Amino acid sequence: MTAAVRSIPFVRFSQALLVLLAIVVACSGAVRAADASPGSLAMVGFELLEDHPDAGRHDAQQARLKLIEDEFRAQIQQRRLYTLIDNAPHQALIDRVRGGVEFLYRCPPCLAEIGAGAGAQYVAVGWVQKVSNLILNVNIEIREVSTNRVALVKSVDMRGNNDESWIRAVRFLVRDMDDRRRANPRYGL
């Protein structure tokens, strides 16, 4: 028997061992990432973009923005996607920065300032784009504070301008974030 023929089982064994080692390394990294505590998140709220503002619905729309912010926070907390920062100690900063721009979501440096001031790793802002009372969408953007890198952007279309449709859209958005994080532990980070 030649040396080449005798080495074939050894080559196969070496290849199998390398594959097994690669699987162990990959799994241990995923387990460490899944076990790590979630990053801290400052959520600055939701804003409303209306193509056709209706003064008669202004108060109801503002109440819905607060409603979906509370739901977003509750869903993020429940699913442990991020550790939420309490806005109360930082409200003056948020109000000052928000007062200087039309929309926070259009001002990445503003978001970075709020996130840094709150001591958060990430900062989130949401907005609802209202084309009509039938056609709307909910959007969220999460940025890494230290680099100003966009960590996540999501959008969900909804039909109907009522509390139920707004809540349903936010729940779907967060549920999808959670599903994707389970598949990829670095999703949104």
Q: Which descriptors would you attach to this protein?
A:
Rossmann fold, 5-stranded mixed β-sheet, alpha/beta, 5 helices, 22% strand, 189 residues
Q: How does this model look, in words?
A:
It is a single chain. The chain is of the alpha/beta class and 189 residues long. The chain has 2 domains: 1-36; 38-183, Rossmann fold (3-Layer(aba) Sandwich). The protein has helices at 3-35, 58-79, 91-99, 108-118, 163-183; strands at residues 40-50, 83-84, 122-130, 135-144, 150-159. Strands 2-1-3-4-5 form a 5-stranded mixed β-sheet. Strand 3 and strand 4 form a beta hairpin. Helix 2 (58-79) runs parallel beside helix 5 (163-183). The longest helix is centred in the first third of the chain and has 33 residues, at 3-35. The model is unreliable at 27-34 (pLDDT under 50).
How do you describe this structure in short?
This protein has helices at 3-35, 58-79, 91-99, 108-118, 163-183; strands at 40-50, 83-84, 122-130, 135-144, 150-159.
